[in-house]
Amino acid sequence: MDRLTSCAVSLSILLGIGASPLVAHAAVPGVTDNSIVLGQSAAFSGPAARLGQSMREGLNVYFARINAEGGVNGRRIELVSLDDGYEPDRAVPNTQRLISQDKVFALIGYVGTPTSYAVIPTVSQAQVPFLGAFTGAEGLRSPFNRYIFNVRASYFDETERLVEFLVSQRKKKIAVFYQNDSYGKAGLEGVKRAMERRNLTIAALGTVERNTVEVDQAVKRISASTPDGIIMISAYKSCAAFVKGMNKTGQAPDYLNVSFVGSEALAGELGTEGHGVMISQVVPYPWDPSSSIAMEFSRDIARVAPEVKPSFNNLEGYIVAKTFVEALQRAGKDLTREKLITALESMKQIDFGGFNLSFSPTNHNGSQYVGLTLIVGSKGGFLPVLEDARLARSRSGGMGAVAAARNAPDTSDLRKAALRGAPPR
């Protein structure tokens, strides 16, 4: 081979001209001819483990379906999940490893505000897409970050809905129990804003440290104010401990949680004391036979993961995975991170069968959907609040939905009657 030909061949290799697809994609981390590798850091151990496990379940159900159908443009989707125990100082090295060692194409389904906040500098510097974190914190929404895409509604959306509900029930003496970190403070700020819009002030505050259940002081402070309702912004174990502690005081306020608490895990921790506890949800009711997305989820579970039980949390993971795959299909076969971002930003007014999603080049917050549900009965069943409120009025002569749920017998009759959740807001 003469020198000119040798130089031409070298240039062709550098530019990817005439190279095999495998070589051409070598410069795109996590992408080969037959696979796309994604990374996730979440809690798979410790007091918040159920949250990470459920999120991963939902992601894997949808990815398993897509892989069974041949993948996207012939590429199977692989998920590398690392345990951070819901601790920021573990999430950062996990993320660095996923990017530098595992060479993932994108990051998906992180769980928690403090862990997600901690990795923003790493994500931004590496310019890696970060999609569908299980948190509604404002710090992932403002200031705008080109690499962060939020699928779920924000904590501001959720807390507005919770305050709105309490006030509609003529309950204005509202206390807040929150986790003493960025997650709890994000939710607290949302409650403050919602209260201020109604010229109200928070009656009392109580805190708990992350990954602990030391709630005695919070119970003491909040019970002293005899609140009508308590909005709780923590994980399921600490919220359950707080509810049980408050119940021992003999008071009977309404207990309201944001979605991050983990609905099924909270119901399990509370047992018989869960009856009437409210939780805001950012995805549709998973057992609604009239919800297209819920029924699609159930069919895919039966097909690829029959051991999985539907829940609010794993349905969220499923919707996040569905969002990613929709963007992959739009991005085309010659995949790059930039093309994925452009594809996500092109997703306007997407209807996933009862869950609407919309991104743009200036707005990466996909949804404002917030519904309300109640834990009903001793076995941890759930009811959408709007349907239950109608049942409550007919059974109780106008008492509030939460009070009626507490006075109801068990879940079976009510649950059969409740088919639909609250509509998008």
In short:
The protein is α/β, with parallel strands linked by helices and 425 residues long. The chain is 44% helix and 14% strand.
Sum up the structure in keywords.
Rossmann fold; single chain; disordered C terminus; disordered N terminus; 16 helices; 425 residues; five-stranded parallel sheet; 14 strands; seven-stranded mixed sheet; 2 domains; alpha/beta
Contiguous helical run count: 16
Query: How would you describe the shape?
Result: globular
The biggest sheet, with number of strands, parallel, antiparallel or mixed sense and barrel status, is: 7 strands, mixed
Unreliable stretches? 1-25, 387-401, 403-425
Query: What's the architecture of the largest domain in CATH terms?
Result: 3-Layer(aba) Sandwich
In angstroms, what is the radius of gyration? 23 Å
Mean pLDDT: 88
What is the CATH fold-level name of the largest domain? Rossmann fold
Spell out the CATH superfamily of the largest domain: Response regulator
Distance between the termini: 68 Å
